[in-house]
Fold these 2 entries.
Entry 1:
Amino acid sequence: MNPSDKPPVAIIGTGLAGLACADGLGQKFDVSLFDKSRGLSGRLSTRRAQAHTFDHGAQYFRAESAAFQQWLKPFEAAGHVRDWQPRHVTIAADGSKTTRPDGAAKKVFVPGMSAIGKVLVAGRPQWNLYLDCGIDAVEGQAGAWMLRAGENSFGPFEHLVFAIPPEQGLALLPVETHFTPALAKTRMLGCHTLMLGYAAHEAPQLDWACAHFEDDVLGFAAVNTSKPGRGEGFSLVLQTRHDWSQRHMEDDIDSVSATMKARFQALTGASTQASGYDRMHRWRYVSAQVFAATPEQPYLLDTQLGLCAIGDWCLGSKVEDAFVSGMSLATRLGGLG
Ligand SMILES: Cc1cc2nc3c(=O)[nH]c(=O)nc-3n(C[C@H](O)[C@H](O)[C@H](O)COP(=O)(O)OP(=O)(O)OC[C@H]3O[C@@H](n4cnc5c(N)ncnc54)[C@H](O)[C@@H]3O)c2cc1C
């Protein structure tokens, strides 16, 4: 599997943390990337249904660190990243609205949030990419880790990077590491995302593009159509509050959908009758409440074993946190050799 004499590295998970790590490792390593999904980009996810486009994971992101801004530049120049300035409101329990201050510039990947994975991979033919390849087990020992996915086995790898949620990483860890306690203490909360695609005559008249709700059920809504490059079909994304979803994670999806629609109608007066598309996505791992690492070292690493873990949950719960975690680990591994 590794005809080159470069150290072989396996990265499990192709969300932005895994992708940034792979990119940061550059030409010094022989990089293999694995993901259980058919697509890249993890929680930067986009669904298309005829005229409608839904970013049903991350809605937008900020780039506050110089490293992230610099990394994004070529993608911005090529039109894969665009600024987005939505009218942002808070909707109170009585339905009253207040405009929120603009805050830092919001960015989106174009034509959907998942686009970054495809663009990146297209420019990195040297990567060994295995999609639809969920890793079930890790075997072997330091310096020679093997990955098992169903009947298939991959390796040996000198370094193994878990770029997956901490709960899933903990379940795959083959041995006790320095960072096992950090993984064990980090828990992520979930949420439900409802995607509504309206036919032209049904589209509600909303005078905002992003709404934060002061509500027990709903947390956030975005008019996806208002982002650059999303196409014409009016597309609305509704998200629950994490604490509500945590209590309703195993509920029947239709009853969750009905509850979300009722709350949205009550708070905004807008219809949820959407004949173009009407689907729910349940996210088990969205947002960490306790972080596993620190801004000084935003990744987990056991140098003796060659095992590492990265993800937004190392230092926050945002896209930029995932980037910083992955890129910082790459820099560290690059300096180890
Ligand atoms: C609903 C929602 C809304 C959000 N809104 C925002 C927002 O507005 N702004 C913002 O900045 N951030 C937002 N986020 C958070 C943002 O999406 C994340 O911070 C970021 O995408 C995390 O990237 P990551 O690489 O750490 O993890 P992920 O993107 O979760 O990547 C992990 C990858 O690992 C794969 N995987 C898991 N187990 C295995 C296995 N055994 N084998 C192989 N592959 C495996 C998964 O398929 C996935 O692709 C939101 C997230 C969600 C879900």
Entry 2:
Amino acid sequence: MSQQAHSGKPLDPSPILALSTAYWDAQTLLTANRMGLFGLLSSEALTLQQIADGLNSQPQACRLLLNACIALQLVSEQDGLYACSELSRAFLAPGSPAYLGDAIRYSDDLYQTWGKLQQALETGQPQMPAQQYTGENEQQTRHFVYGMHNRALGVGRVLVDLLNLEGRRQMIDVGGGPGTYSSLLAQRYPKLHSTVLDLPSVVEIADEIIDSMKMSERVKTRPLDYHHEDFPTGNDVVLISGVFHRETEETCRGFIERARDALEPGGMLVISDIFTDANSQGPRFATLFGLNMMLTAEQGTVHADAAVVNWMEQAGFGQLHRREFPPPMPHRVVYGVKQ
Ligand SMILES: C[S@@+](CC[C@H](N)C(=O)[O-])C[C@H]1O[C@@H](n2cnc3c(N)ncnc32)[C@H](O)[C@@H]1O
């Protein structure tokens, strides 16, 4: 018997069916990326046998994978020769300036963890401890830090355009990860110096990345555990990006107060993250991101940008602004000035 909506029209179950198999699409991409398919196909078109040999896979199985990748617009085929699609060449071929393969490797590392969503709900505990990808497991730490760098190269360029740091000279980048945001801002503002504060294993990799962006003269790193150590003082910018989603409201409010104390009068606090709308029920990506953070960090969550504006106001910041990044970027930024 068909089900009817309030409008009287028959209800279509397709959205539910599509959601129930969405992991097929994800696993096809993650596996092709992990096995090196896009690197293999980036410079020349290859036959099925050449690809099967290159991936060390069975030809019949490999054909099924390639057909699925064609349907997902990741691979193209002509006269029996397979190549990267325009999309995968731009974003998945190693060496491309817009390469996202490391970020996708980090999503791959999370696949098993998402399978434990029920355990996380029942125990209230993350299913992949944060220490695993911020130091304990060397390979996962590299995927995490380089993944952040891949993303920040795109997102950070938008942030640089949204902010005006003219005349500002000393910034701290709290939980600055790969140092990409600091480097992009220092490239835009030639008088700006920044110190990236993060855990020891992360800043070690950040040094490599900052060096590769040729910014090591003005972007320094310093190992610092933000839960237990003070922020350096005397700054005219504090950037806190991608950190609030790992912390409770109380800790975030504490960071805002500590940022205020680390700023000179007139200094700017910039808080960038994935935030929800005020009612916490959208946008869709932000709500799912909250689950992802619950699975991967002790206090992982997602906050509303409207709440952050209030916290900053109560901590003595003025000239407050709230901006959304252009779609498809799910990021938002809140910034204001110490009164
Ligand atoms: C999602 S990343 C954001 C990185 C960067 N700011 C960005 O937006 O791309 C969160 C960062 O917080 C760092 N972090 C987590 N716990 C920390 C702690 N206790 N002290 C300092 N940094 C920490 C992580 O290592 C990671 O680099």
